[in-house]
Design a protein that fits this description.
It is a single chain. With 166 residues, this protein is of the alpha+beta class. It is 49% helix and 25% strand. The protein has four helices and seven strands; from the N terminus they run H-H-E-E-E-E-E-E-H-E-H. It has a four-stranded mixed sheet with strand order 6-5-4-7, sandwiched between helices. The protein has a three-stranded antiparallel sheet with strand order 1-2-3, with helices on one face. The mean pLDDT is 81.
Length: 166
Amino acid sequence: MFDYFWNGFKKILESSAFNFSIYFLGFVLLLILWRRFSISKKSGGDFRAPFHISKGYFFIHNAFVFKNRTIPLSEIKSIDIKFLPSVKLNGARYFLCLELKSGKSLAFFFGKSKQNDLLVKNLKNKHKNTISGFIFHNSLSYFSKIMELLLESLSIISILCYNIHK
């Protein structure tokens, strides 16, 4: 039984498409870890934290933000944080949107954990003097409105499809 499995595994390893996909995924993983490590080292914050505020800058540790991840606090007009509850076991998330004084905005997601809850809670208390606007939304009401609109549109589509097939 094990020999049969081992022979099949050897054949898979000989495949160039499999090798390319493994190397590509390894490269992407290393790139993400390097981007996160470099910004966390620069900010002096925790590697696992989604953001860190120090030295007069807002450092974003998320590796999937492709804009400038070091933003001066004087450039931030407002911070808008929305809590998105868990749907179908995907895990609860926070959505943080930074509105800059230049009119541009920068947004990213990060997961809900005890450490992140503490970061969000302390964000307003620590930096209310340096950041002019801070808004926290419990997005359960937004989420329920979106679900209502989705269900309503699905019911309209199903009625239209039923009438077309008659």
